[in-house]
Amino acid sequence: MTDTNIILITWGTWRLGKAFKKILPQALFPSRKEMDILDSKDIEQYIVTFKPDTIIHLAALASIPKCEENKDLAWNTNVLAARNLVEISKKHWVKKFIYLQSACIFSWEEDFMYDEDSIPAPKHYYGLTKLIAEEIIKSYNSDIFQTIIARTNFTTMPWEYPKAFTDRFGTYLFAQWVAKGILEIIETKTNLPIIHICWDREISMFEYAKLGGSIVEPMTLDDYNWPALTKRMSLTTKYWHTYKIEDSNFNDN
User: Which of 6, 30, 63, 74 is the most exposed place for a label (fewest CB within 10 A)?
Assistant: First the structure.
């Protein structure tokens, strides 16, 4: 990354933002008060003022239950805000727009790992809003304004629940590896439209939480009722490369 590449990270004060601040301390991390993503005038004023070259869009209402309970807020946050941000970014000559995408856009009914060419089929409203936003963002891609969809599956540590599933599996990453993966995408100047950032193998959520240094108790999917959860959330990649668990520093702090 060159010194002239000004990077703006939405919701950079969110927990994932801490991982980005460690490796991109010179980036712009506006708080919600400084740039309200639900206010298009706010977005435009901030972009015009600071003139970023690259935007990493992390902001989303990511709770599946909250999206089901408040669909208007989910739509406004996950779809309309993303549309306004990408539209204003292109209008004001931002060069690259990276969209952090959730693995929840897939149905997870098939017994295999999903790659960049797999067909999305979300099973809940959160996944639907994220998929719609992805399609909107891809439609703005051009020779002078590059959009990249960075799909991943992660959570920050410490684990926020007292228990974790022993029978729910994924190629989960820790937050710092998501940040490193996106920085690598920026530095390699790839033209790939969709990239999966994931570990090289599956582990259970319980193993994942323990690797992250959290003290948790085991549980199974039989112990859980609503909303319905999938047994697997495992990504792989055709066009990028996977990351190795052995190479990870498991401390998010």
Answer: 63
